[in-house]
Design brief:
By secondary structure, this protein is of the alpha/beta class. The chain folds into 2 domains: 116 residues, Response regulator (Rossmann fold, 3-Layer(aba) Sandwich), CATH 3.40.50.2300; 97 residues, OB fold (Dihydrolipoamide Acetyltransferase, E2P). The strands form 4 sheets. The protein has a 5-stranded parallel beta sheet. A 5-stranded antiparallel beta sheet has the order 10-9-8-12-11. The protein has a 3-stranded antiparallel beta sheet with strand order 13-14-15, with helices on one face. Strand 14 and strand 15 form a beta hairpin.
Length: 241
């Protein structure tokens, strides 16, 4: 992404404001322009600054977050942050990006940001990693068999989400569970097709399953998988970051 998303936080609770700020600072795509404690301050700031995304509390003095959004002719994208579930229906009628319930975990925050990026910007292209020269995998391979539970179990590559190293074993995580087999991750890597990517000495991911990523980790569904320091350059080149 060439330009950062310019963010405004509006919340009258200092701790909630600090938490959102900390979440934003973990994502290099985002930039905090300002933080306001009420809607009136935010209204004045929007006259002077270009804001792409507002993290907006609903229950605030003088003017609620919902009233504030309704008062704007051309509001920026909005993510509501609140401790109250009862405003959900009314907030979605305003076509906001998302509705986050406090206390807001980073995982849930991350999902909201990914939703915003998908709605407002072209997602970064995911480039498959080239097959290593020593690889025995073909681009036409669709599965392989692994030894587990005294059986030869068929593993479809398209179902695999990520592979985790457990010393002399690996655990293959897929849509319906996992399979553990005795094999070193480096040996198994050579059997994989080009859309798999080594991101850590202990993890290989299926790039087709990645839902989001940061400078520090890759997300597949609910799982945050760390990016190893020595792998970062290659990972970001392949993911277009």
């Amino acid at each position: 992404m060439s330009e950062k998303v310019k963010c405004l936080i509006v919340d009258d609770e200092p701790l909630a404001l600090q938490l959102i700020q900390a979440h934003i600072e973990r994502l290099p795509q985002l930039e905090i322009v300002a933080a306001c404690q009420n809607a009136l301050e935010a209204f004045e700031l929007l006259k002077k600054e270009q804001i792409d995304l507002v993290f907006l509390d609903i229950q605030m003095p003088v003017l609620t977050g919902i009233e504030f959004v309704k008062s704007l002719q051309h509001p920026p994208s909005i993510i509501f942050t609140t401790a109250y579930r009862e405003y959900a229906v009314e907030s979605y009628e305003l076509e906001v990006v998302d509705y986050l319930l406090k206390p807001i975990t980073f995982t849930r925050f991350f999902k909201a940001i990914n939703k915003y990026l998908n709605q407002n910007q072209a997602p970064p292209p995911v480039h498959p990693s080239p097959t290593p020269k020593t690889s025995t995998a073909s681009t036409e391979d669709t599965f392989l068999y692994v030894n587990a539970n005294k059986k030869r179990i068929k593993v479809w590559f398209q179902d695999v989400e990520y592979i985790e190293s457990l010393k002399d074993y690996i655990r293959i995580h897929h849509a319906s569970g996992s399979i553990t087999t005795k094999e070193k991750i480096s040996e198994f890597e050579r059997k994989l097709p080009p859309f798999f990517l080594r991101i850590h000495r202990s993890f290989i991911v299926n790039t087709q399953k990645i839902t989001a990523y940061t400078a520090h980790d890759v997300e597949i569904k609910e799982k945050e998988i760390p990016i190893g320091g020595s792998y970062k350059k290659e990972v970001f080149e392949k993911l277009g970051g």
